[in-house]
Design brief:
With about 325 residues, the protein is of the alpha/beta class. Helices cover about 35% and strands about 15% of the residues. The chain has 12 helices and 10 strands. Strands 1-4-6-5-7-8-9-10 form an 8-stranded mixed beta sheet, sandwiched between helices. It has a two-stranded antiparallel ribbon with strand order 2-3. Strand 2 and strand 3 form a beta hairpin. Helix 3 packs across helix 4 and helix 5 packs antiparallel against helix 6. The N and C termini lie far apart (about 45 Å).
């Protein structure tokens, strides 16, 4: 049951104004949007209550229909983990921008059809977001936090930017096509033989017209352009191209990425590696037990891990 649940999570994620203020909060949150060629991307700026320029972090979420707050389409994955992260940083004098990526949430209108979306679009958008942030005189130091697949997006974007630091949280260390093959071997071995030729063609940049019906949820025709683009990016190569201090954070109770992934990234570059005890993939304190771990994905009020926040603040400050 555990293996099946983990595979479902993995496959689900790879395919595809107001002001708040109170006595407890030392920040305000406001709409902060970005014009792109295809429309407008919707974001939120969390700005600490300071009277001088401050550090700012661009927060990039994980794969699939994950929005700016770390929640997924529907009600099954409601974590608020990225919203909590932004607010925790705001209370420590660190600004942040988080956003609905194209095709998701309030930025859904930017992508009309699934086949129009490719992975490199996310990288281009992240670069544009940071360029906008760097033109804002309210900030004086610039960081990217990439969570899960956002770690790969963020590293690739950082290759094209001048930053004060890059932070990878629960990001893949292995090439995504290899991770997919490993998951198929463990959980859907009977489909591995049919999957391998498809993966090989996608890696070559070729579309596969008629994938087997039983594999349509992975290799459907409309998702193939995204997979072709995704398979072109290697996490190791991407992080090696980052010309800035690097912090790698990984929970030891993560069902989706692993300590092995984090060590692969760390060993490939000059970085600081921190393994956060009892943290799962959505940045919450959780036991390793499969059912209890997954249950945290639907508890949006459960706070994020304090040790994670502490490490982030130390690195940025």
């Amino acid at each position: 049951m555990r293996k099946i649940s983990v595979l479902i999570i993995f496959l689900a994620v790879i395919i595809t104004g107001f002001t708040m203020h109170s006595k407890e909060r030392k920040f305000t949150s406001k709409i902060y949007s970005l014009e792109v060629e295809d429309g407008e991307l919707y974001g939120i700026l969390t700005l600490p209550d300071v009277d001088k320029p401050c550090p700012v972090v661009l927060i990039i979420q994980g794969a699939g229909a994950t929005d700016k707050d770390g929640n997924n389409r529907g009600k099954s994955v409601r974590t608020n983990c990225l919203k909590m992260l932004a607010e925790a940083l705001g209370n420590e004098g660190i600004a942040s921008v988080r956003y609905d990526k194209r095709g998701v949430g309030k930025s859904s209108q930017v992508v009309e059809r699934e086949e129009d979306l490719i992975f490199s679009d996310y990288i281009d958008d992240a670069v544009l977001w940071m360029e906008k942030i760097q033109s804002d005189d309210r900030f004086n130091k610039y960081y990217i936090i990439g969570h899960s697949e956002g770690g790969l997006v963020g590293a690739a974007a950082a290759n094209r930017l001048s930053l004060d630091g890059f932070i990878s949280i629960a990001a893949p260390g292995e090439a995504i096509h290899k991770t997919l093959i490993s998951q198929l071997k463990k959980n859907m071995k009977k489909h591995l033989e049919k999957s391998m030729p498809i993966i090989d063609e996608l890696r070559k940049g070729n579309l596969v017209p008629n994938p087997p019906l039983e594999l349509d949820f992975i290799f459907r025709r409309s998702a193939q352009p995204y997979l072709i683009s995704l398979f072109q990016y290697d996490p190791i190569s991407a992080i090696q191209g980052v010309d800035a201090p690097i912090l790698i954070l990984q929970g030891d109770n993560d069902l989706q990425s692993s300590v092995k992934d984090a060590k692969m990234l760390h060993n490939a570059t000059d970085s600081k590696l921190v393994i956060v005890k009892d943290m799962n993939h959505i940045l919450k304190k959780s036991p390793w037990d499969n059912s209890e771990n997954i249950s945290t994905y639907s508890k949006p009020k459960l706070p994020i891990h304090e040790d994670l926040v502490e490490e982030l603040i130390k690195f940025i400050k």
